[in-house]
Amino acid sequence: MSTLEIIILALIQGLTEFLPISSSAHLILPSQILGWADQGLAFDVAVHVGTLLAVMIYFRKDVGEMFFALTDSIVKKQHTGESALAWWIIFATIPAGLFGLFGKDFIEEHLRSAAVIAITTIVFGLLLGYVDIKGKQNRDIKSLGLKGSMYIGLAQAVALIPGTSRSGITMTMGLMLGLTRDAAARFSFLLSIPAIGMAGSYLTMKLITGSEYVDWQAIFMGSAISFISAYACIHAFLILLDKLGMMPFVIYRLLLGAFLVWFVV
């Protein structure tokens, strides 16, 4: 990988992981459109680590409170709102884990194409726009409950299809359940922690058991750039969300999908 490729791909991962526009789609597109070689497992691990650190550090207070509350709920049987949220996130992560475990080969072989990305980009973009306009947006995270969390977890499992967008579809489901934009975004970001952790662990295991050459310069650059860009993206997104809503991202998805349809045809 050239330095330019490292910078662009790391920025794509950092900027799109938490925006409702699909990071997996954008990471596939350079190879589909520009003819770039696949970035490889090692680089995928690096950028996943960068984005994971970004969301954990940004929400460090929430993560710390949930961790200690979860521990107390197990050891001392003391249950609080924070421990309930931690359990909801754990259970909501299970569908994506199972879908990834049993469906990853099919997805890799049949769904990582510009045609699939074009369809999912447009369809789920329209759905996001619809619920952003029609959703009640009068509930906070604490009112979500286990059932609502599982609905969002099931939506996250669908996001393994490239172009869907993990953050996009989980926010969409959150808005469908009546969450405010801020609550839907925050739950989506917190839910991303175990999801990104699982994906990173899987890629790391494949890297360790494989024989792929590791370019350490690309690793460190990719991790640092994805971390900085992801942290800045989360911060800006939460500030601008209530002012701009989801419509700018819906429009972007429709334009991207239209371009992909033209590219495929």
Written account of the structure:
This protein is mainly α. Helix content is 80%, strand content 0%. The protein has one domain. It contains 11 helices and no strands. The radius of gyration is 18 Å and the shape is globular. The two termini are 29 Å apart. The model has no long low-confidence stretch (mean pLDDT 89).
Q: What count of structural domains?
A: 1
Tell me the span between the first and last alpha carbons.
29 Å
Main sheet properties: none
Task: Report the order of strands and helices.
Answer: HHHHHHHHHHH
Shape: globular
Helix content: over 70%
| Strand residue percentage | under 5%
User: Structural class of the helix and strand makeup?
Assistant: mainly alpha
- Average pLDDT works out at 89
Number of strands: 0
Which radius of gyration do the C-alpha atoms yield? 18 Å
Low-confidence stretches: none
Tally of helical segments: 11
Brief summary of the model shown:
The chain has 265 residues and is an all-alpha fold.
List the helices and strands and how they pair.
Blueprint: H1 3-16, H2 23-34, H3 41-58, H4 60-75, H5 81-110, H6 114-134, H7 145-158, H8 166-176, H9 181-209, H10 216-244, H11 247-264
Helix pairs in contact: 1-2, 1-10, 3-9, 3-10, 4-5, 5-7, 5-9, 6-8, 6-11, 7-8, 8-9
